[in-house]
User: Fold this.
Amino acid sequence: MYARLGRTEDGTAGAAEVCTLRRLAGADQQVLSLWPTAEQAAADPAAEWYEVQDDRTGGSPGERPGVAALVYFDGPMSEARQAASLRAGFERIGPLMDSQPGSVRSLVLWQPERCCKLIVMQCVSVEALEEAQRAAMSSKLLPGEDRALLPGPDRVDVYRVLAEAGAR
Assistant:
């Protein structure tokens, strides 16, 4: 599965899913769409395309997400940092979010040309999002994890989830 993140819903016909987001403290929006092929995801030159590395439900599956955090890890990431980030996500943070109340869905997106990562975290409310962030940041490192390879995100933007749709 592949993802595209752009400013408009133009060109999302045929997407497996589309989610429209509006910045919590602003008027700009982002449109996240999911696609079966890289070619479809990359078809809009005005948008960024990604490989979906992980797609998991949280502790509140089936709930309607009210907010989403876009958590950016700007590139280029070294291979060691990529590996450490994958391990942290799959073995420590992901399983924690699987049971986190208020967490609806998390997508881990990888942009191979720029070697950067974007995590889309959907929660039922701002409070649930904040609690999920606290839980992730306070989780103990696994044996062998190197804190130096896990410096945290470069930025986090918070959006209201305006609309979600299946295939268009």
Summary: The chain has three helices and eight strands. The radius of gyration is 15 Å. The chain has one domain: 2-165.
